[in-house]
């Protein structure tokens, strides 16, 4: 196993890694809409979703990968009413064949974020 880290995404706020690579797979920890420069949560579902995707893209880049290498995502939403907005922004970052995906509504996310996404990517 190899831990991956970048300053272009928020640092871990607990005992975990931004990502772990093992046997050609990269497991990216869930990202919320924290701005890595300020450590603050950005406002609103649109801004948080974009920031989450930028954070994930940065972690993938640290592994030498891109969203095109993602095979599975999980989206955690504080409110399923945000699904359409999130889905529209999410689609800007992925092309066919799209990764497998799960989306679930949760009671609460760290720092009261509206969205968290984790991904699994594979080296080609």
Could you please describe the fold and organization of this structure?
The protein has 124 residues and is an alpha+beta fold. The chain has one domain (2-122): RutC-like (60s Ribosomal Protein L30, Chain: A), CATH 3.30.1330. Helices cover 22% and strands 29% of the residues. The chain is built from two helices and six strands; from the N terminus they run βββαβαββ. It has helices spanning 45-62, 83-91, and strands spanning 2-4, 19-22, 25-31, 70-77, 100-105, 115-122. It has a six-stranded mixed β-sheet with strand order 1-2-3-6-4-5, with helices on one face. Helix 1 (45-62) runs parallel beside helix 2 (83-91). The longest helix is centred in the middle third of the chain and has 18 residues, at 45-62. 30% of the residues are buried. The model has no long low-confidence stretch (mean pLDDT 97).
Q: Descriptors for this entry?
A:
124 residues; 60s Ribosomal Protein L30, Chain: A; 6-stranded mixed beta sheet; 2 helices; 6 strands
Entry summary:
The chain has 124 residues and is α+β, with helices and mostly antiparallel strands. It has helices at residues 45-62, 83-91; strands spanning 2-4, 19-22, 25-31, 70-77, 100-105, 115-122. Strand 2 (19-22) and strand 3 (25-31) form a beta hairpin.
Task: Outline the fold blueprint.
Layout: E1 2-4, E2 19-22, E3 25-31, H1 45-62, E4 70-77, H2 83-91, E5 100-105, E6 115-122
Helix pairs in contact: 1-2
């Amino acid at each position: 196993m190899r831990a991956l880290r970048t300053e272009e995404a928020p640092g871990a706020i607990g005992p975990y890694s931004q990502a772990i690579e093992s046997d050609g797979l990269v497991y990216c920890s869930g990202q919320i809409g924290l701005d890595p420069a300020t450590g603050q949560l950005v406002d609103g579902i649109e801004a948080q979703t974009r920031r989450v995707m930028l954070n994930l893209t940065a972690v993938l880049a640290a592994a030498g990968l891109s969203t095109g290498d993602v095979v599975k995502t999980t989206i955690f939403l504080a409110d399923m009413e945000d699904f359409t907005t999130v889905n529209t922004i999410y689609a800007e970052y992925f092309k066919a064949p799209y990764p497998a995906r799960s989306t679930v509504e949760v009671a609460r996310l760290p720092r009261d974020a509206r969205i968290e996404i984790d991904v699994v990517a594979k080296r080609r």
